Amino acid sequence: MKQACTDCAASYDISQDEQDFHADMEVPAPTQCPNCRFVRRLNERNARNLYKRKCDLTGRDFISPYSDVPFPVYHPDEWFTDKWDEYDYGKEVDWNRPFFDQLEELLHAVPRQGQFICPGTIENSDYVNCAGYLKDCYLVAETDYNERCLYGNRVFHNQYVVDCSNIYNSELCYECVDVRKCHSLRYSIDCDTCSDSYFLKSCIGCRDCIGCMNQRQKQYMLYNEQLTKEEYARKKAELNLHSHDGVQAVRKKATAFWSLQPHRYVQMEQVQNCSGDHLYDSKNAHDCVDCSDLEDCKYCARVFSVKSAMDYTSWGDKSEKMFQCGSCGDNCYNLRYCTTCTTNCSDLTYCGHCTGCKDCFGCIGMRKKRYCILNKQYNEKEYRSLCKRLTEHMQSTGEWGEFLPKRFCPFGYNETIAAEYFPLTKEEALAKGYKWKNTHDELPNVEKVIPAEKLPQSIADVPDDILNWAVTCEETKRPFRIIKQELEFYRQLDIPVPHFHPDERHRRRMELRPSRIFYDRNCSKCGKEIATTFAPDRPETIYCEECYLNEVY
Ligand SMILES: [Zn+2]
Ligand SMILES: [Zn+2]
User: Is the dihedral of CA 122, 128, 130, 135 positive or negative?
Assistant: First the structure.
């Protein structure tokens, strides 16, 4: 079935398996193309851009992804109490008005949980978001089960890692992207079970290596060249990896070396009948990116442990039968068109910011409620008959089956994950109907401000005093601070102090990943057709799975 997207006009196909899934979820076929749907859902998640603000209930200061928003924002400690009542905002359905207008009024009225943290699981980690089970962490987002992790996103089950993204079960790593089970690894991409190495790409099981790509179970290798233990030690010392200039020189050389090596068309491990990128331990999952442990899924991103879902982004965790949902997860079942619904929700339609709810339609900010519409309580029979009538009403207004309108989203495009996958200028974002957040940095109250270029080459020459300074980012000129735990980390690992603002460091990490758009092209070696995230005009040599495995083993 071919359709034209009502947002971007692109033609897109709705396959038979999608039609079957829609029938099972009792929803119509979407009127937007998969990409427009993806971007819209990503815009529901502001994980990393946090602001100092006051709790609108108590006046307490805290850190929140919400800055200038029309609704009250409560600290999670207050939001989860009975100091306020979600029924106070309940409304009867007005059958003479579009449903979305009524839902929007509710969205602007009901208090919102002001920081996405799992209450009672966060210890000494105030500056975090989309987080649970953390101890002594700072500025990490979309993150669970970590200790002493600083500056990063999508950081899961790690100890003492700094400036990493998409890192799992690792320890003592620095500036790594898409790595799993690594130890003392630095400046590396797409690696598994590597240790004590610098600048590795697509390596597995390597240790004591520098600048290598596509290697398996190697030791003492420099730019894919096998050295003896003594040669390696001598050459490593010459590289001056403890100094800023030394790191920069190896970064430049490694990047140039990698660009000449064959690249695997996508990253997938332990998958069966799957398509996508950075997809792990999954079965029958298609067009899914940055996911693990999926079964029977399509068009999913950044979710884990999910069964039977389509058009689902962030976060999963034992969730099933999810359609067109963003930022929902932790044991959720049968959710349609929902945003930010958490922990033990089931059978929700057009709900936002609910937790522990069942059988609700068009509710906002409800906690452990059942049979509610627009935050008003009904009995089961009334609820079922009103849902039926409401669905018909929404069909007559053309709203049924549409995801929540863009105007509902309180975030600027540039604040959300959407901008990470699909960067837009302010003008482009506004033209597409998204909001934009104008930001400015408060000047830090410090003894002195020094340009990054003036920082000592080696951490050994950095005085404790640096904790009282601000550094001006070499690229963006934005001021940033070095915190105590961070300085200790650099000292312990003998790493030079970064020259870039944490946001610029994040942007550079994201730039190391290919796009999330799939292109049809041919394997550079055997000519076989492949769907890859490397655009046809990119300079890298791209191998299909078979040719890639022949190359590395
Ligand atoms: Zn479109
Ligand atoms: Zn091939």
Answer: negative
Which ligand is located closest to the Cα atom of residue 39? 1
Quick one: 502 and 547 in the same domain? Answer: no
Ligand nearest to the CA of 35: 1
Q: Is pLDDT above 90 for 116?
A: yes
What lies within 8 Å, CB to CB, of 453 at 6+ separation is 474, 499
In a domain, 180, yes or no: yes
State the sign of the Cα–Cα–Cα–Cα dihedral 440, 446, 452, 454. Answer: positive
Q: Give the number of the ligand closest to the Cα of residue 547.
A: 2
pLDDT class for 514, splitting at 50, 70, 90? Answer: confident
Task: Tell me how crowded residue 71 is: count the other CB atoms within 10 A of its CB.
Answer: 18
Q: Reduced to 3 states, what is the DSSP secondary structure of residue 228?
A: coil
pTM above 0.85? Answer: yes
Residue 119 placed within a domain:
no
Digit-coded pLDDT (tens) for 166-197 = 999 999 999 999 999 999 999 999 999 999 99
User: Please, which pLDDT band fits residue 444 given cuts at 50, 70 and 90?
Assistant: confident
Which residue range(s) make up the domain with 16? 2-36
The H or E element spanning position 337 is none
Query: What's the CA-to-centroid distance between 545 and ligand 1, angstroms?
Result: 30
